[in-house]
Amino acid sequence: MKVAVLDIKGKETGRKAELSDAVFKIEPNEHAIYLDVKQYLAHQRQGTHKAKERSEIAGSTRKLKKQKGTGTARAGSIKSPVFRGGGRIFGPRPKDYTQKLNKNVKRLARKSALSMKSQENAIMVLEDFNLEQPRTKDFVAVLKALGLEDKKSLIVLGDTNNNVYLSSRNLKGSEVITHSELSTYKILNANNVVLLEGALEGIETNLNK
Questions:
Q1: Which of 114, 94, 118 lies closest to 36 in space, CA to CA?
Q2: Mean pLDDT score of the chain, rounded to an integer?
């Protein structure tokens, strides 16, 4: 499929980019997308949650009161979970949330996500550009020219570009990544995906292995 290449002013350059049908025009596999997004979100969890149980609480081991004759339940430790300041019953413990996923399934998920965006006409191809200095105002001007100032957008670069990255860092609705950082979650989380010309070859090479 062919897509018109735009410049940073939002106008067509007269050139067209050839997007691989094997990446941008497949039948989306929703289950692969589900598995990849689930793994991505699971890996965002630190798993360092921890609560102290009664054996870990600092406190006296003295028996609180005599065993019988008080008319109330027997109590042997101030560290018991039934008392304020005592240990927690079945509290959270550190856990590794890492999930394994086959590389081919991950590639299929990313291709499916890109194909879904392609079906929605939510993919743009932009000619490679650079900013003279990190300046949010200049980056916002590019988004306005593309009609993306009020939409969540994902800008995919061919190579690392600090000026463009730093210019976008203050914007909540826009994210700049390189083609090697492309993930199913980030594709689906954006309303529009903007691919720079320099990123196309890397994307297609990574997903057609």
A1: 114
A2: 94
CA distance 164 to 139: 7
| 2-6/12-18 β-pairing | antiparallel
In this structure, the chain runs to a length of 209
Reported as a single tens digit per residue, the pLDDT across 47-93 is 999 999 999 999 888 999 999 999 999 999 999 999 999 999 999 99
Helix (H) or strand (E) holding 144: helix 136-145
Q: Are strands 153-157 and 192-196 parallel, antiparallel or unpaired?
A: parallel
Distance CA(18)–CA(12), nearest Å, equals 15
For 48, the token pair is 């360092």
CA separation for the pair 107, 32 (Å, rounded):
9
Rounded-to-integer distance, Cα 149 and Cα 166, Å: 17
Tokens of 157: 């670069």
Instruction: Please state the rounded mean pLDDT for residues 112-119.
Output: 96
Q: What angle do CA 113, 117, 118 make, to 5 degrees?
A: 115
